[in-house]
Amino acid sequence: MLLTVKILVFIVSGFLRVGTGFDIGLSTKCVVIPKEMDMCHEIGYSEMRLPNLMGHTSMAEVVLKSTTWQHLVHTDCHPHVRMFLCSLFAPICLDTFIHPCRSMCVGVRDSCAPVLACHGHAWPESLDCNRFPADEDMCLASLTKEYKYLHKVLPKPACQTCPAVEELFTHKRVPEVFCDSNFAVKVKLSKKRAVIGDQEYNIECHVEFITQGSLLPYETQHMIQQWLLINENCTQRMTQTHRPMVYLLVGKIEEGIILVNQIYRWQRRDSQLTLATQKWRYHKCL
Predict the structure, then answer these.
(1) Which of 95, 129, 148 is the last residue of a domain?
(2) DSSP state at residue 92
(3) Which domain range does residue 276 map to?
(4) What are the residue boundaries of the NTR domain, all occurrences included (predicted)?
(5) Helix, strand, or coil (residue 259)
């Protein structure tokens, strides 16, 4: 649901640094944000300026270039990554262009560049933070301290070497692995048939805890989804076909970072993993 104008002004004011803006002039027009731009839906406004701040002059070009960033947005690599990118690809339809502040760009770049690097891409020159205004100018700034208390800090997945997907194991070995870990979750994965942009992955059912550790049930599904998006090389290995597969992900949380250390394929015909998880209820770690 779109926000009312009053609420929208409140949200924008929380990010806006007052100063002089860049005049749009008569060369731009207001257009509806297209449905293909998923990352810029439900952000508080439904119309954007065209051409945009990336210099894209046609909606076809906007859609083509923006969809390549949707994958990064879904990783939640930074709290402001969606606002930062949408302010450039789909700038709000006001009397002046509102750029993101340089500090917002730096924050998003420092958090999200490692995720791009994990996928083999460098932070693009088109998003060089030096091109954006300093915080004393009119621009979208990072949230102030008064707003930060609204955002709970959760453990974050990291780009990592993909553990081997194990299919041969014993019911005696698995509890030992559990004892050396913070969490073990059972997930069901499938691959979507993507029409535009990067491949997407589903967690088809609720995450089932084998051992919970410090993770909370209502947080874990989203965090596992983040891990799968960031470590796409691993996800591709687990989703060779569109047929759903079940896996057990075992890992640790170290200094606020989620690391998956073991991946087991959970096959119905193999009772070893089922037996191991049943025995875990009564197992005592040394």
Answers:
(1) 148
(2) B
(3) 156-280
(4) 159-285
(5) strand
Token readout for 165 is 């997907």
Rounded Cα distance between 131 and 100, Å, is: 10
Share of the chain above pLDDT 90, in %: 32
Residue type, 156: K
The residue among 101, 129, 148 that closes a domain is 148
Q: Which of 136-145, 175-184, 203-212, 276-285 is predicted with the least confidence, judged by mean pLDDT?
A: 203-212
Number of Cβ within 10 Å of residue 258's Cβ equals 24
**pLDDT tens column, 152-206:** 567 888 899 999 888 877 778 888 888 888 888 888 887 765 544 455 666 655 5
Q: In this structure, are 28 and 64 located in the same domain?
A: yes
pTM of the model: 0.72
- Cα-based distances in Å from 240 to 116, 195, 210, 245: 23, 18, 25, 10
β-pairing, 99-100 vs 139-140, is parallel
Q: DSSP for 96-134?
A: EE-EEPHHHHHHHHHHHHHHHHHTT-PPPGGG-GGGSPP
**All residues at 6 or more sequence positions from 286 whose CB lies less than 8 Å from its CB, including other chains:** 179
